[in-house]
Amino acid sequence: SDDVILYFMVTFPAVIESGSEATLCTSLLKPNETLQMTVYLVHDNQNRTLLQETVEEEFHHCSKFKAPQVEGDSVQEIRVDVKGESFEMTEKRRVMFKSYNPLTFIQTDKPIYNPGQTVNFRVVTMDKHFIPLKQEYSLLILEDNKGNRIGQWTNVSSTGLIVQLSHELNPEASEGQYKLEAYIGDRQTRHYFEVKKYVLPKFEVTVKAPNEQSVWEDLKIELCAKYTYGQPVPGKALVEVCRKYIQHYGESISIISPCLEETVQVCMYISITKSTQVQLVYQAGKAEFLDLPKNFEQDTVIEGKVITTVSGKPIPDKKVYLLRGYSWSPELLQNLTTDINGLARFKINMTDHPQTQISLMASVYPGVHYQSFRMPYFIDGHANIPFLQPATPYSPVYSELSIESLKEPIPCGSEISINVKYYIVGETAENYSTDIIYKVMSKGAIVHHGYEKVEVKESKKLIEGKVSFRLSVDVGLAPVVQVLVYCVLPSENVIAASKNFNVEKCFRNKVSLQFSPTEAVPGEENTLQLSAQPGSLCGLSAVDQSVFIMEPGKRLNADEVFHLLPVTSVSDYDHRVEDELECLQVRPRRSANDDHVYNTLKSVGLQMVTNLPVRAPQCLIYKGIRYNRQYYGGIGMSGPASGIGFRQGYGPIETVRKFFPETWIWQLAEVGDSGSTQVPVTVPDTITTWEMDTFCLSSKGLGVAPPAQLRVFQPFFLELSLPYSIIRGEEFELKATVFNYLSKCIMVKVTPAPSSHYTLKASSDGEYSSCLCASGRKTFKWTLVPSVLGVLKVTVSAEAEQSQTVCDNEIVSVPERGRIDTVIRSLLVQAEGSEKTKSQSWLLCPQGSVSEELELVLPEDVIEGSARASVSVLGDILGRALKNIDGLLKMPYGCGEQNIAILSPNIYILQYLENTGQLTAAIRERATGFLKSGYQRQLNYKHFNGAYSTFGTGEGNTWLTAFVLRTFGKAQRYIFIDAQNIDSAKQWLINMQRPDGCFIRQGRLFNNRMKGGVNDDVTITAYITAALLELGHTSKDPVVNKGISCLKSSIGNLTNTYATALLAYTFSLAGEHDVREQLLKKLDSIAISGDGHLHWSQSASDDSDSLSVEISSYVLLAVLTTAEVTAADLGYANRIVSWLVRQQNPYGGFSSTQDTVVALQALALYSTKVFSSDGSSTVTVKSDKESHDFDVNQDNKLLYQERPLQDVPGKYSILVKGSTCVSVQMVLYYNIPTPAETSTLHIKAKTEGDCTKSFGQILAINFTVIYNGALNSTNMVIVDIKILSGFTADPSDLRNSPLVEQVDSKDDHVLMYIKEIPKDIPMNYQLLIKQLLPVKNLKPAVIKVYDYYQTSDQSETVYSSPCV
Length: 1364
Fold this sequence. Notes:
- It is found in: Secreted.
- By secondary structure, the protein is mainly β.
- The chain is built from 16 helices and 83 strands.
């Protein structure tokens, strides 16, 4: 009612954390009787009393109540009832209770990784006070850029508050954004990092330019280049300043952006590009008002000043116009001219202007003006001065409160004074007092409150002054405090103000970390001085600064941690707690006050239940007509939602540098009861600055240390330049360059270590010690001539010596640390010609004793000194494959089929060792390591529909998808494989099944010789059905059942040996005995036998190729896959195994991928069936000149025993005595001149280039591949190009050549994968190579071509430099 003078105010946060201790503040003003005031929390018609007071006089106080526990959030109401004899009133406002999840963050050691590197990561969970929680994570996932799960950890708990795990990326990992996710129940936290191929930058370039640039001033750009170890980079920089054109819709003309280029002398051997953007502004200057009064009274004069400036500098003698009104229709009042300080004074007589307020404008333009596009302009000054009138509830409020600024951020632990200025105008009451009430909020809760009384004794129209209160700023107030002040004036008007102050981001757990000393030389011992709350566990991380040059700002620091908080400060209400307003019935005079007070409350997130007019009504009803108010409201809290993840003593005098990590330290350290510890570390060899990030956890909370740095610097260092490999007979100039980074001169002496493997001839000047002054460099040279084949170590040292010599008029100095720098590099020396390998293997099972004879023969044209031979013995036929589990074939494996083929033998070997009790932890770890990287690599070839193809492009391949399904299914036992990858492959295959049960073949066969007299669909159906049976599906499974019926219908007319053998194995798996017997009988009739061996081939003409191995292996699998294996079965199997073992290559594989996979599966099954855990044998290998004895027993069955053979060429005998089978292999390696004979697959090469340059020549190798065999085309073909010594290849053009699927560079070879070579069509290719280092007597290099699945189809040729 209009005559109420009693007011109440109840304030509380609009959003309160569920279950917290919440603060509620009440004020009662001017009570004229005894009143009862009750505050209720109302929800679902339930009232809970929060406060009940009987009051007789004014008061302000705050009390606490326990917020209800809610799931998610719940909107409730706070109702205030005030009752007296003559007064009764109820008001209510909404409040939201909200539960916040704990905060989880994931930290990775780096923001960016090269494929093949290890991703180290930690997961930590804490509450909103940063107190760590012992947390179990139901699931941790690592996903690649295509959404494939490549790593998964389930039910991981943090024993010591920090979960620390790692994952090795596979060297062919695809590039893009990867994601780590941590799940607690169904709540997840994410962290992203990038995988890309990069080379670390050695220096950083910074460009300083203004954010804004006025068009008529000079643009100043500052460019700085600095090495990561702090030294400046000398060189040239190209600076471009370009202005982008904005293409407007509908413009078709292309305009080249204008650029200005400048080359400035700074420094750079490697180039780094850095760009920055500058906003161009056309604002030339501005006019502003100074010293204006806040308001004016009747018949007075307004005095003031105008100032004009350009870029903040005053302009004298400038014409300025004083106008009245608005920019669209101003009225000119006065013409002014500025004085020497850019100021012009004016007076306006207000008798001429009777009104409630006056709007003034200061402009350099006399009337209406419009800014032209891209033309310089001046900004106008504007001011509104109101007429001073008595304050009433119905007139605008001109009184105001303001909070003074402070220096931010406010340091933790300080006590500050917050000053509030008041300016009260137009109050007519005499001798009154008012209370300025203040509330301080942090993280959405009231943390401090109070009030200051202002007494007004005299009756003045204008009262100014200030009050202040003290605030202790502690850790709990970080990162922002929000201050609200308000007061009620005698005129019933409320005035309010708010301000946010940033507080230093500090923690209860104070952590500090320093390196001691803070500068180091490579290889030195250093100490980390770590201090934190006693009992803390700390996560330490030190990364090369170069990583952060590439990906700046992605580190764990205080900002990132505070960024996790659900609420840091509040700037608005959630729209669900905004109360709807009813319409107000008004008398004509009442002015609808604006929402200044309401918006001020909202800006700090406080609700106020009051009967004061703090918020203008949404609408008014006047004389029965409703008037709506235009209203725009906002929503939301600042601060991210919970659970958002991150965006992440003197050393030795001599140093040999070989340890260059990107992540140096990644470890956990405990701080004991003393609160400090010292962690000894060894400084790596990289010359850079290490960036250290540290956080610690204790029961008191989390703490983050300020970043620490260690600068690693060597006074001088040495660089060697030499090629990767050379051919015997070639020589090159070994160069050693010494750089001096000291500010003084040194005398440096360079010495190569003596070696029997090569000779060094001094170069022309023969001087190997020299003066080297500040920032100087000098190169020393020798000619290197190797004397042996193989890998040589080249070692060179540089030493700073004492000397009496004067350099540049100064005595030379000797550094205390880092006096000698030693560099070791390896050089591969190869024999000329082409390398050939001959191997012979036996599985010898003595019943007492057994012997074999072999003559090692060399061809006549063997290259002198290139022959070497060895014999190896194992007690297990799978032992050789186990030793070379990562390299069963000396062939490239850059496509989807080859990769999975290299992966699957791991599984058969693991199964065999596990079934026979021979699997050790070490073998398991090594094999699963290969499985993991192979699994990740295979995903590069996956299609989104679940299928796989040879290069991950084109249509899915049925064979390969079935092969992947079978391999992934079996690998699940040993490593994590995302079940979705297995299901999607299976589903894709099922979709390829026709109604008759046969599968449709899509994509190529790996080996086109599998064909012949059989429908491909029968072979693929047998293969898929066998895969499903191996994975545990039975004939009852409808897919398997239909597959078997398809196969049965085609048995009658089989003429293809390969298909017969595969079907025999499939029916054996299905338990179809009759069909199995029938097929095995048929196979027996066409077997090729002799000398106790048994094998099969696809056709009578060829019986040594990979297909024979594959067919014979399928027969072996079929023979051994039966419910009861008889002695006769084992005897038959033994004859097949004897032949198979003889086909093995020196690495335990066979000639290609498919034969290796099936043969090792069959041999593993055979070995499991015949495994015996007792017995031993001795093996004697001897010739006329030497003899070697080997013992094989149960303890060393898997031990690979090898001895070199000296008697080459020569005759050897092998004698085995004892009771256990042994696998013996002899291998002969030698080189012959590259043969010119041609096979059906043939290659020719010719080189051309410009020989006028003495160095740095670019040569083009033009080569042609031709096939003229019996088939329409070859299988996949590999071209292996050895690069000339001292040259490097640029294979980019080859990649776009016809039929080329992939091109890889490996060391000094380039490998091309060609889909096929069609019959009788020559395919031409070109490879460019560039000279990096000069090599003398340059020898020709070999190019080899071969059919991947039929390796006997091959040819070689040589090419040489036309400039030799």
